[in-house]
Amino acid sequence: MDNLVASNIRQRPTRTLLSVAGVALGVVLIVLNTGLVEGMLNDRIKRERGVGAEIRFGRSGAMLSPSSSNPVDVRYADRLMKIEGVGQVSPVGYYIQSGNSGLGMEIVEGVEFESYSAITGAKVVEGNAPKTDQEVMIDEFKALHNKLKVGSDIQVFGETKKVSGIYSPQVGSRIKMPLSALQNALSAEGKCFEILVKVKDPEKQDDVRQRILDELPGNEILLTRDLGVGVGREIPGIKGFVRAVLVLSVIVSALVILLAMYTTITERTREIGILKSLGASKGFIIGVIEKEALTISLIGVLVGLIISMIAAWALERATTLQLEFTWSWILRAGLIGLGAGALGALYPAIRAANKDAVQALSYE
What we know:
With 364 residues, the chain is of the alpha+beta class. It is built from 13 helices and twelve strands. It has helices at residues 2-11, 13-49, 76-81, 113-120, 140-145, 179-185, 205-215, 227-234, 238-267, 269-277, 282-318, 327-353, 357-361, and strands at residues 55-58, 72-73, 86-98, 105-111, 123-127, 135-139, 153-156, 159-168, 175-178, 191-192, 194-199, 220-223. Strands 1, 3, 4, 5, 6, 7, 8, 9, 11 and 12 form a ten-stranded mixed beta sheet that branches. Strands 2-10 form a two-stranded antiparallel sheet.
């Protein structure tokens, strides 16, 4: 059987390559997209947890953007400072825009740098903090990957602004501008997305959180240590997107294998007749066809994984996107590729096994 499978694959190299490409495409879709999702979420969690604030005060679903209907009034900062156990507060605004490379998205953060620096420890390592609405500050990672320096131009809100400084460490978003400038740009004066709260004693952050809830009810108070639990839910449709990618990958791989195997079976009608006349059972014929489909699928899975790794390397070098691959998703991608191949070949295999030997031998 093995020699028969290998011979069938060698005799039709073009169709084999197309089938391999179809399976590889499905694997690439799964690995790259889930890698982007995992990398994006985990990178955001890592940088947000590094901010240093134990508590985040805001309103459920709020976002400082033109469509926001529930932002936070920055005057809450003064009220928070009066609550026992609160050491420092800093209001922060966010704006989401497409990445400068044209891929993905990035967050522009509006901060009051003095209070923000006191909480996060962020320091200007080159240049200075932005002083006007036309200046922004970036972290070292973005400066390195986008080849930017102090004085470089950068697109924010669709406008060209100047990089006034580079800061470290990498905390929060990679682009920062004065909160007042962000408010002016979004016509949201006196508003912010959330207020970072640094407590005097981190061991008592649960008690401080409860005091804030008691003093300022009706607001969302999130502990930074719990950020990873809810961050995936904050991005609309993220789970649906992953499911859609999985379904699309199965459909693409299965259809490619089905079409390839169906055409191949038609071309091999006489060969199938010869096998049946020699006593080959239905199970044997189905096994040969399924084994061929699985061999092609396995090659497609390996090719897809190699392409995914190369593409991920290129994306990380060309952009600030972070990809993170896990063995669980790599294994799923492999199993889906093999499963889709086996599923796609099932109908052609059954059709071939049910052919009448006499009619097959007389097929022209």
